[in-house]
From TrEMBL:
PANTHER family per UniProt: AMP-BINDING DOMAIN-CONTAINING PROTEIN-RELATED (PTHR43272:SF33), LONG-CHAIN-FATTY-ACID--COA LIGASE (PTHR43272)
Residue ranges of every copy of the AMP-dependent synthetase/ligase domain listed in the record: 41-125
Species: Entotheonella factor
Pfam family, one: AMP-binding_C_3
Keywords associated with the record: ATP-binding, Nucleotide-binding
Molecular function GO terms recorded: ATP binding; long-chain fatty acid-CoA ligase activity
Claim: Transmembrane helix is one of the keywords in the record: no
Gene Ontology CC: membrane
Protein name: AMP-dependent synthetase/ligase domain-containing protein
Domain of life: Bacteria
Amino acid sequence: MNVAQRVGSRKLAKQPISAWERLLYGLGELLVYGPLKDNLGFGRIRLAYTAGEAIGPEIFTFYRSLGINIKQLYGMTEASVFVCVQPDGEVKPDTVGTAMPEVELKISDAGEVLYRSPGVFMGYYKNPEATAEAMDDGWVHSGDAGYLDEHNHLKIIDRARDVSRLADESETLFAPRYIENKLKFSQFIKEAVVHGSDRPFVGVFINIDLEAVGNWSERQGLAYTSYSDLAARPEVYDLIQGEIERVNASLAEEPQMTGAQIQRFLILHKELDPDDGELTRTRKVRRGVIAQKYGELITALYGDDDHIAIEAQVMFEDGRSGTVRADLQIRDVAPTAALAAAP
């Protein structure tokens, strides 16, 4: 798979590959990649598109490494589907490509993506109010926030209604779901709730993935008795800090997002649960409930203390309720320096 990741994407992009790398990749195709694609039912796929919610760059790169020409696509019903697609040779794991022919894109002052083209809809059926709200002089409001990179590739970061600004010197763009998705691409992080709107920096609550971190702790020879016990371990904090630093390094590569790097975090004493009203049944974070229920922790996250004692009521699966007491550590994370722009 190391050979596949090194060679596969370059092969699809028709970039130079040495004879030795071609030989190794051909051997991998015979013994590993080909059988794996057959097992997945992908043996005859020549072109594939992914759309909707973002997938992790690791997953996207994995399929391209196997030789599957998978691309990102961005569209809406109001646009007759197509707005952007990735051209051959310009496939990136974190963008949705460039505008389709005759599609125009622009970004509003609020960061919302607007588009127009000959294919946009005439209006919502018998709903002129909704049509007037969605369209402005031929430009359609997508409802998504994003920006165009230096190669005119569109990057979607969040729903426009969820995007705000940090209260820092640069009034940095703050897109909570974009950062949370980057965190949740880690196998060790199950849920993440980032904070930062009208605050000086980004802080985050973390829920560890009990199974993944439990397996990791066993390999490290660390014993634990419960989720709360495992989540409080200094070694687990070190593990999660490494994952946050990886996300910060990724944000540092994006000029619009480098100021939104995570600077403080804590690992929650319990898993966020739909039964406690903290998540929807489809596991979307209820930010209002979190803000009300964990207001004391949010205040501590933006304070000077490095720990906070907490006592909370929890609901067990059998319907019983109980009290959890914990002393939560709060850690600082040093931001990654922004990369210099390419000449």
